[in-house]
Amino acid sequence: MSGDTPEDVASLPADLIAAVHVCDGLAVPPGEVPDQPGSRNVWIGGGLIPLQEWVDACRSTGFDGYYCPEIFSRKIAQLDDTTVAATLRNTIAFLLA
User: Fold this and answer.
1) CA 55 to CA 4: how far, in whole Å?
2) Residues of the signal sequence (predicted)?
3) Pick from 68, 69, 71: which is nearest to 41 by CA?
4) For residue 69, which of 57, 53, 86 has the smallest C-alpha distance?
């Protein structure tokens, strides 16, 4: 959702949410077009998005489904898959705790 706020999400009926994709991002300079490898080239929790606020907004709707981490970092893609998956799982669990 682009341009929406956590308050907008919190006002949605839970049955409208199929899954929540959790991804962080970096600032995009004014006038530039955001691109995945640039603006999202960061570990979840290492960017500028207030993830806890957004997760809390989703949870406040009563949604109790899937939270899917997304990483668009080429550097992270070079790491051990098992380690990355375990760390992402722990990151999402922390946000949901």
Assistant:
1) 14
2) none
3) 71
4) 86
